[in-house]
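Budget justification aside, the reviewers requested a transparent look at the raw inputs and outputs of the sequence design task funded under Objective 1. We therefore reproduce one unedited record. The lines immediately below are the structure tokens for a 363-residue chain.
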């Protein structure tokens, strides 16, 4: 870090060192240099980055200095980005003493997806009061996050979480947060179909929501308040059993006038394949849709496709999982979608028990 500062002309070096905003992003994988720069440059806000377990090779004296530094700078920290969670992180989060008024971004991602319930770090994290928080990414996190003061931030616009472990006995739905007035993007994965957490998610209210990703999700979601946002432009669902009612899906989609991207996978709702005639008032009309992906059984895919009424040219990807004896039904897909495209723009690839159909412009 110091080499990069020294390897410029003197005038540029003087300007760079005098501009505190250039030193507000501190990579704590080199804690000595980070603390020195912060002390000498005195930035007004800080972004702390933990790339790995920085405490592994720290001497006791340096570890004490780092804790002292974070404690002193806690009121200036606006972003925390952590790519590998470690136990001593709890000591760093404890320095906020529950109040993180400057925090606007928290991104803690552990690619190993270790169990996190009841860890010291999570206990301190979920007790933080961050009224100016806008972005929250936690992978993984326990279901008790729904009761955290972090989710009460009125400016929170982006939530991405991998929920780990069962929710029974962890989540008290009577104390959980349900109102998200500024939320634009909600992405949830992991164990989100357990009884307590699932029921809570379906009662979330986000009137300005634009992007919704739930993996997995049950068909109850079509009747939830989340689907009432008139600004919803992107949906990505991986459905699980039991298969739901196709009528609920049709009604929900018809109330999304600005939907542009739709992805449905997994256990899709089914209706009799031989009933190709569909009443006009049952059709799904999505005038702004430009991307449609569907993946599931042949019967499930056909059941959804035949209710789609699309006048515009769109990009579609269809992944059919054919059981033995169902290959003949895949031809019905072409009968349904042929009016959406030009024949020269269709690509067809078939494999054992799988039929992939892609048409439209390449993406």
């Amino acid at each position: 870090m110091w080499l990069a500062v020294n390897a410029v002309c003197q005038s540029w070096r003087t300007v760079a060192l005098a501009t505190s905003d250039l030193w507000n992003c501190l990579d704590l994988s080199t804690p000595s240099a980070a603390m020195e720069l912060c002390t000498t440059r005195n930035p007004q806000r800080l972004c702390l980055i933990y790339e790995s377990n920085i405490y592994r090779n720290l001497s006791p004296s340096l570890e004490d200095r780092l804790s002292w530094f974070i404690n002193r700078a806690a009121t200036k920290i606006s972003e925390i980005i952590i790519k590998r969670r470690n136990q001593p992180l709890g000591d760093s989060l404890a320095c906020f003493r529950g109040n993180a008024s400057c925090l606007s971004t928290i991104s803690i991602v552990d690619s190993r997806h270790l169990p996190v319930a009841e860890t010291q770090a999570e206990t301190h994290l979920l007790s933080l009061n961050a009224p100016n928080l806008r972005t929250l990414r936690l992978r993984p996190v326990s279901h008790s996050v729904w009761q955290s003061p972090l989710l009460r931030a009125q400016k929170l616009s982006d939530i991405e979480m991998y929920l780990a472990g069962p929710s029974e006995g962890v989540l008290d739905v009577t104390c959980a947060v349900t109102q998200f007035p500024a939320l634009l993007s909600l992405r949830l994965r992991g164990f989100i179909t357990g009884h307590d957490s699932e029921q809570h998610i379906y009662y979330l209210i986000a009137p300005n929501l634009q992007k919704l990703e739930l993996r997995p999700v049950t068909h109850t979601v079509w009747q939830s308040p989340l689907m009432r946002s008139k600004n919803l432009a992107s949906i990505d669902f991986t459905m699980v059993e039991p298969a739901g009612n196709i009528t609920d899906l049709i009604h929900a989609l018809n109330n999304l006038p600005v939907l542009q991207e739709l992805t449905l996978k997994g256990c899709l709702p089914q209706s009799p394949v031989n009933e190709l005639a569909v009443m006009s008032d049952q059709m799904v009309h999505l005038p702004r849709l430009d991307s449609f992906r569907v993946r599931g059984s042949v019967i499930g895919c056909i059941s959804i496709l035949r209710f789609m009424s699309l006048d515009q040219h769109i990009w579609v990807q269809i992944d059919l999982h054919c059981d033995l004896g169902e290959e003949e039904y895949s031809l019905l897909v072409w009968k349904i979608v042929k009016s959406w495209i030009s024949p020269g723009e269709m690509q067809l690839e078939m494999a054992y028990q799988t039929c992939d159909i892609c048409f439209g412009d390449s993406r």
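The radius of gyration is 25 Å. Confidence is low (pLDDT under 50) at residues 113-118, 344-354, 359-363. Computational costs for records of this kind are itemized in the attached budget.
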